[in-house]
Amino acid sequence: MTTPAQDAPLVFPSVAFRPVRLLLISIGITAVAVVAAALSGHLMLGVFFGVGLLLGLLNALLVRRSVDSITSQENPMKRSMAINSASRLAIMTVVALAIAYLFRPAGLGVMFGLALFQVLLVISTAVPVWKKLRAGVPGESSAGPEERGTGK
């Protein structure tokens, strides 16, 4: 018998999320963006770009916190994670859009910063995992889940 998807427990693989590294990269990109924006006469666009990067980092930290909190429960459910994600993303979206609207046109830098942060997050987590997969994990076989005894 299988468990319906909405009742299945949450299982998250460990990921190579390094917030300090992302913060340092974000600070470096913000510095370059501020200098480039200042040279083009739009200093605040660069500043808001950095705000967007930092909002993206805040969102990623909140994701990690909520995943840790929800998966530490005795019976973590996908519904809890979905509700948490939807509410967090709604709040982040409202904040970013409010900044973009209130400080337009330079405030649009927040949206670009958020978008770039998502790219940085994917790259910074995917590359170490990809390298590990290419190198091969000791003790792991190429057998499928049924052969390893983890299938249903």
UniProtKB/TrEMBL annotation:
According to its UniProt record, where is this protein located?
Cell membrane
Q: Which residues cross the membrane?
A: 20-39, 45-64, 85-103, 109-130
Spell out the InterPro entries in the cross-references. ATP_synth_I (IPR005598)
Sorted alphabetically, which keywords does the UniProt record give? Cell membrane, Membrane, Transmembrane, Transmembrane helix
Topology relative to the lipid bilayer, per the entry, is: Multi-pass membrane protein
UniProt name for this protein: ATP synthase subunit I
